[in-house]
Every structure is written in structure tokens, then in C-alpha cells.
Write a structure and sequence with these properties.
The chain is an alpha+beta fold. The protein is 38% helix and 21% strand.
């Protein structure tokens, strides 16, 4: 860690005694953040240098964009579809959600949403969410009862309940090595799979 701190002196590294999970760490970082915007970004993502500035320009020009994500590709350039349908009592079983997506293909089909310049899925993956700090505060932050997984659906649902837009901006992309955080070691893998 000390070599990381020396290499990036502009970054405020917060060292914790224990791993409180994704939500606790994100809330802690948000509390320390000084700017108007928060970007929740998984450590297993790679951003091109020209990603954030155009994204901020776009979101500043669209004040009704409350939670914003960008297209995410795996190492082979395949879309990982960082979004989905809310889990409801009738679609709690994943194959039913697949059928629901087929029936609502134009509105919620994965391929259809990924091919649009701007799309509005029900929830966005927590691997990349840009949000105004003031809006994050209104939502009450991440729910720390979720150690990792489904916390993004919960945050998106609370935004949905307020009538806020959850936006997938496909004009910009990043690489996401999915699972790089949750499979760091046997202990973390056991906790995330249990969650």
C-alpha cells in the first residue's frame, strides 16, 4: 500500500482495519469526498483517459440524469450488460426475468438497450455509477445491510421510487473484469457468494 500512496500522492487513501464490504467502503469514501460528483467504480475496471470529462459534460447538461452508467465490456470486447430488471415477486426466478425481457424487448431487452446511445434500464450495476453528491445524500447512501451484490438494485429502486432517471450512456465505454473484486481470495469469495 505504501508504494501505491507514494505513486499517487493526489489520492486520499483510507485504510480500514476490517473489510466492511462494498457498501460500507463506498459510504466511507463518499463521506470523505469533497467534490459535487461521486463516481463509484470497481477496482477491476479500466477507464480510457478521455472518459470522465465528456461524461461530466453530458451529465451537467442533463440535470434529470440522476444515476449514470456507461457501457461495460469484458477483456474480449463483449458487452457485460451492466443493468437489469428489478426483482419482483413474479420474476424472482431468473428464467422468468429472461421471459419478461423478451416480452418487453423494445423497452428492456439487453441488446436493444446496449445499442441505443442513451437507454433507461430499471437498475444499474454498482461497478460504475456516477451521481451528484447531493442526490446520493437524498437517497441516504448505500444500504450497508448489503455486503456486496444487489446493493445497486436497491439504490436504483430508491431512485426509481423518487421518479429519478437511471441512465445508461452507451457513447462511452470501460473495461470491466467482472468478478475481480469478489474473487480476490477464498474468504472474500465465500462472503460474496453467501451474500
Amino acid at each position: 500500500l505504501s508504494s501505491f500512496i507514494q505513486k499517487y500522492p493526489i489520492v486520499n487513501f483510507i485504510q480500514q482495519n476490517s473489510n466492511g464490504g462494498f457498501t460500507q467502503a463506498c459510504n466511507r469514501g463518499a463521506k470523505e469526498a469533497k467534490g459535487d460528483w461521486l463516481l463509484f467504480l470497481n477496482p477491476d475496471t479500466i477507464l480510457a483517459p478521455n472518459t470522465l470529462e465528456p461524461l461530466l459534460q453530458k451529465t451537467n447538461s442533463c440535470p434529470d440524469w440522476k444515476l449514470t452508467a456507461i457501457q461495460q465490456l469484458d477483456e474480449k470486447g463483449r458487452d457485460t450488460y451492466p443493468f437489469g430488471l428489478f426483482v419482483r415477486w413474479w420474476n424472482v426466478w431468473p428464467p422468468i426475468r429472461s421471459i419478461e425481457r423478451l416480452l418487453k424487448k423494445n423497452q428492456y431487452g439487453k441488446k436493444e438497450l446496449s445499442e441505443r446511445s442513451v437507454a433507461f434500464p430499471e437498475w444499474l450495476s454498482g461497478s460504475f455509477i456516477l451521481i451528484r453528491k447531493a442526490d446520493f445524500s437524498i437517497l441516504g447512501g448505500w444500504d450497508e445491510r448489503f455486503w456486496m451484490y444487489s446493493e445497486d438494485m436497491d439504490l436504483s429502486k430508491r431512485a426509481f421510487d423518487l421518479g429519478w432517471k437511471r441512465v445508461l450512456y452507451n457513447e462511452l465505454k470501460c473495461v470491466h473484469s467482472h468478478g475481480g473484486s469478489s474473487r480476490a481470495n477464498a474468504k472474500v469469495k465465500a462472503i460474496t457468494k453467501t451474500a
